[in-house]
Amino acid sequence: MKRIIVYTMLIICSLLFVAPLFWAVTTAVKSPAELYLFPPKWIPSVWKFSNFTDAWTIQPFNLFLKNTVIVTLMSTLGQLISCTLVAYGFARFQFKGRDLLFLIVLATMMIPWEVTMIPQYMEFNYLGWINTLKPLIVPSWFGSAYFIFLLRQFILTLPRELDEAATIDGANKLAILVRVIVPLMGPSLILVGVFQIMSCWNDYLGPLIFLNDQSKYTLTLGLSQFKGMFGVDMQSIMAITCLISIPPLAVFFFAQRYIVGGIAGTGIKG
């Protein structure tokens, strides 16, 4: 009986989360006549799947998709490389002020991006990077405090005997990282990659600030083009929202077991 009650409550709670997604999908395939009915009609009389192709071709979403993929892949690659190097340094190297420097790195997580937004804009404007994809890519190659922390904690769980054995075989520090440490960091690297992909794919404020030309827009900015001064194309918004939600959902679905393993492997130690 207790199990039945628990399952019932879980089903009810899950419906609360599924309902907005179901409403978005059904709205995307509704006809204009059924869009603003009251009370709302959850199941459309006619499923207009042509709304997806119409919405995708109204704006140059193929170009927006290309820009988004470039930003996402380059930013993710930058985070993986830079954060791995920095985390390895904090976890394996002994130098004066290491712990203090690590605390300073962690302290940057308490500074919201809105505080550094204007200084970053001024810096990128001075470099001539405004209205290019560089402001969305280059900062990722300097690491993220959160990802550095996650990877450092995982490296600390690896026995130093592995490093010593590789050193005896003649490997230098970089070779130890590439041949010994990185192959063992699979779940944590996948975790960082998934988090970064989600962040870049759904980023709206960054492209809004740094991009002016429509040819440089990402998918999130392209989605905002359906909001006019005198109205909102709700069908197109929902259709594009459903389409651009597919890649993040697919990434999370296939990587969820690695995400759990990556989080479990970054326990606090040392």
TrEMBL record:
Record's keyword annotation contains Transmembrane helix: yes
Gene3D superfamilies xref list: MetI-like (1.10.3720.10)
CDD domains linked to this entry: TM_PBP2
Keywords for this protein: Cell membrane, Membrane, Transmembrane, Transmembrane helix, Transport
Keyword presence, Disulfide bond: no
Annotated localization: Cell membrane
Domain ABC transmembrane type-1, first and last residues per copy: 65-255
InterPro entries listed in its UniProt record: MetI-like, MetI-like_sf
Domain of life: Bacteria
Main location (coarse class): membrane
Transmembrane segments: 69-88, 100-118, 138-155, 176-198, 236-255
Pfam families: BPD_transp_1
Membrane topology: Multi-pass membrane protein
Family: Belongs to the binding-protein-dependent transport system permease family.
Protein name according to UniProt: Carbohydrate ABC transporter permease
Protein source organism: Paenibacillus violae
